[in-house]
Amino acid sequence: MTKALYIKTYGCQMNVYDSARMIDVLAPLGYAPVEDPDGADLVILNTCHIREKAAEKVYSELGRLRDLRGARKRTGGPDMTIAVAGCVAQAEGKEMLRRAPHVDLVFGPQTYHRLPELLAQVHRARAGGGNAPGRGVLDTEFPVESKFDHLPEAVASQGPSAFLSIQEGCDKFCTFCVVPYTRGAEFSRPVGEVIAEAERLAAAGAREITLLGQNVNAYHGAPPPNSAGARPWGLGRLIRRLAEIEGLDRLRYTTSHPRDMDDELIAVHGQVEKLMPYLHLPVQSGSDRILEAMNRRHSADDYRRAVERLRRARPGIALSSDFIVGFPGETDSDFAETLRLITDIGFAQAYSFKYSARPGTPAGTLSAQVPEAVKVERLASLQSLLDAQQEGFNQGSVGQGMPVLLERPGRKTGQLVGRSPYMQAVHVAAPANYLGQIVNVRIAATGPKSLSGRLIEDPVVGRSEASGTMAVEVHP
Ligand code: SAH
Ligand code: SF4
Ligand code: F3S
Fold it and tell me: Mean pLDDT throughout 181-194?
């Protein structure tokens, strides 16, 4: 009998990828994904710990699930297993079982390949004492074995645009960030494994693959068995190889660190046409003093130079970034430096956040915390500058023709939504069977967050693909 699995995903694309893999792990046990927790036998919240707000959301969702399970019990309905995965699970572990005793299972980002065994433990615990609070099962180990060696082949359909994790964890230890603690040490998957997964995704209908990693451009994967030489491959070389896969038309990668933009990778931007002319390259701040306090280990001018090299290699490349305002000790003049950097570079898109003190991170305990009111004010002025740049960039697209990968139905009937090479969302009137295809679109107008246009040609390549079932709440 099939059992209903509801996964709600918070945080970054790596969590989105992990959720798809959890579907793969659970499929042999008879679980099939559903879009609603109401009838679910198993609910998994795949959580994010990056900022306080993200982490707190989980507890309100857990409260709702407890009520839902209670109501079901009163009406004699089937039981529900409640599990928490991801970075809050990893960071809080036992504390989470104490704070939310109705949770049955807490497991981290590196142990979800053990889900079948963990669920068996939950069911045994239940047989031994019902749903007694505090009987939750916990697995937040960083196992020596890699989960990738134990996961089944990736099959859960991600639709025309798919994620592929090639690198995990982080050794950079920026002083504000929880990721090195929640995801563990940096690890690159071997090249052969990445190629095989990319080929499977392409065969299942993916036209675009985004290579994922917390520091994806630090990738150094063991070479494939038949390759000349034993030196690890960098990201640039991997992209050249993936570009040879038939049926795959677009490649992207995220998230990158400015320090790891090496010459080969920059050259690949100029030489591999399938690599899209858009790069998310977080800089966080434009002040050298703050960059140093953040342990970013690069200056604002290093960032400017990296962008210059990229633009020389691939003229017209669009840039996106992440910014933090109100890092401890940030003064008005530090903040002015950030605005100056933004003005110098010109971003097509960006994410910006108020600094959020995180438990266990070096910056969390610094005494010079910036008052909330100052953070609010700085965030507003930063965002108005970034919004104006984004609007300018989108305006520049009006009248242009560009290839758009149609990914999902739009809100209006007869409308599909896709992405331009520059990651802009584009609305187009097109028949539903164009989903999953790349079409040429003439951009007619821009809205605050998206563009709209009309087809100027029939799709060049014909193929359609259904999209996956997952509830996603991706940051910011
Ligand atoms: N690995 C990526 C980003 C990881 S987290 C990188 O190195 O850039 C995504 C973004 O969240 C970061 O770029 C940063 O801008 C933001 N962020 C991380 N920790 C934060 C904190 N404590 N408060 C506010 N924003 C934070
Ligand atoms: Fe966090 Fe810095 Fe690592 Fe990015 S590079 S994940 S911001 S510690
Ligand atoms: Fe959040 Fe973990 Fe990703 S903290 S941003 S889900 S790595």
Answer: 95
